[in-house]
Amino acid sequence: MLKQHRKRSTNRYGSPSLIELRFTERINNDSQAIDVGIYKTSYPNHPPYYGRFHVILRKENGVWKILVDMDSSEDGTIGEAQFLAAKPME
Prior knowledge:
Oligomer: single chain
Low-confidence stretches: 1-6
Helix content: under 10%
Order of helices and strands: EEEEEHE
Number of strands: 6
Number of helices: 1
Distance between the termini: 11 Å
Strand content: over 45%
Radius of gyration: 14 Å
């Protein structure tokens, strides 16, 4: 469903960042999916930022489309331990 679990992007300061996804729950059939997990965003010279994500997808004409994408830091309670406990993309 998601082709990349690591994505490089540029933040508002123009420096590169890395986003990594790991999963705590994945439910799907041939046309619908729900992915829940932990993401880690890394910036050069800054500590990483962690959060929980929820994504709802639907397959339309053979293409997976995101219907809902939510994330939260859960008041700073998400960290490296939760990230490492989640499953990497297979």
